[in-house]
Amino acid sequence: MAEFGYGIVVKVLELLGSVTFQEISSAWGIKSDLTKLERTIKAIKAVLLDVEEKQASDHRLSIWLGELKDVLKDAENVLDEFQYIVLQKEVMKRNGSTSKKVSNFFSSSNPLAVRFEMAHKIKSIRKRVDEISAEKDKFNLAQGLEDRKLNMQESRDMTHSFVPSQNVIGRNDDKIQIIDLLMQQDAGRNVSVIPIVGIGGLGKTTLAKLVYNNELVERHFQLRMWVCVSEDFNVTWLIKEILKSALVTIDENLSLDQLQIQLRGLLKDKKFLLVLDDVWNEDHKKWIELENLLLGGCNGSKLLVTTRNSSVATIMGTATTYNLKGLPKEDCMSLFVKLAFKVGQENKYPNLLNIGREIVKKCKGVPLAVSTLAGLLYSKVDEHEWKSIRDNEIWNLEQKEGDILPTLKLSYNQLPFHLKQCFAYCSVFPKDFEFKSLCLIQFWMAYGILQSPKDENVELEDVGDLYIKELLSRSFFQDFGQRDFMPIYTFKMHDLVHDLALSIARGECSVVTKKSTLAAEVCHLSFLENG
Asked: 133: how many CB neighbours lie within 10 A of its CB?
């Protein structure tokens, strides 16, 4: 919910900072109230990053955030009304006496009463915002956090390099293709990078494990190492983890210089394979710092990287990226049967098997989604429970740590605030909707959620285009398509990513169906069913 509050804060501050408000507020005698309102909202904005991190573990903070959002919406409405009155006067002045109809339409029988009413509304809003702002002090919120780190309970568990191959269903073709890439020699560089890219839960880590433990790979490389990177791309920590994976005993008190000497000594004249699992780093300098320490290996050494972000592949300077696709339906069904039924029991329940096939369809090839739903049904034979899972949106089902929605939410948590809000508003479109770039940009513009560019030469449409491409690179959008020489391109959201958007926007946006019940605080509705 913090992303919606943040978006309204940005919009209100833009209104308050506009030339129109600065000029008219003095003439109307409300400059003092607007200045105080602006100052208070800036103070609230400074703590919103910390609010987002803490609200999940503090119910009182969630309530406070809801109250803040309500008063900010009222503030936005009052300021929009204020701006509307100013535009009225401009229209009347521009048309003068030549357009009596326009003048009659906009004129007020008592302009002083209008000013008094607006001044009263603004003063009332300021007092309410002051009260909400005073409440924030009891939460001990930090101001101006730049690099928000995930709470430990939200971060992904560390991975290891082993998986029994007999426990993995499907992915054999992917395994063969990755192994083929690992065996190739790259004349241009002695250490090549192969990123495996795809959304959370698709099986990137499992595929990397299959490759890592393959007998051919074991024989091909003199040294193999596995490091789960997750969000922290700290070079000193990475060197230690690489050394530990190679079973090198290290002294924790060694300096960075001593550690890098140890690492270069380990890799010297060896053909090695290093797996960096779950990489999020988009800082090119950090990557170069690590890469420089890995160049001492023999030609043919490889880095296998799993990531949700195709930008990571670009940063690592690789020409070969392996985009992992969904698991075929047959394999998904085999996985579901294995996890939902006790061994050999599936044939006793043909009705449940048929419902299971429909459940598998909604997973759209994502193994973790299959595992999540199958786990909810394990050893259950009540047909009603199976239909409940089939007919429910995934975001309505109970989710444990490591299930599909918490896993996807890690990607969402890494987004900057402005992208979080734009992504969440996509929830009002139906599943499998084909977005057109220009239409989505205009949609975001209509909501006022695109940040005004600092460069006056940059159009707001260009900002929206940048946002779309950023979300595409992070796997929130997929199925990119573009006709030759056409400036408009198309894309879609994976159904599970759409479920994520629905879960985030719940309470703010709602899709209306025949079965809908609407929360009182919902502001945006989408009607998807005819009749």
From this structure: 17
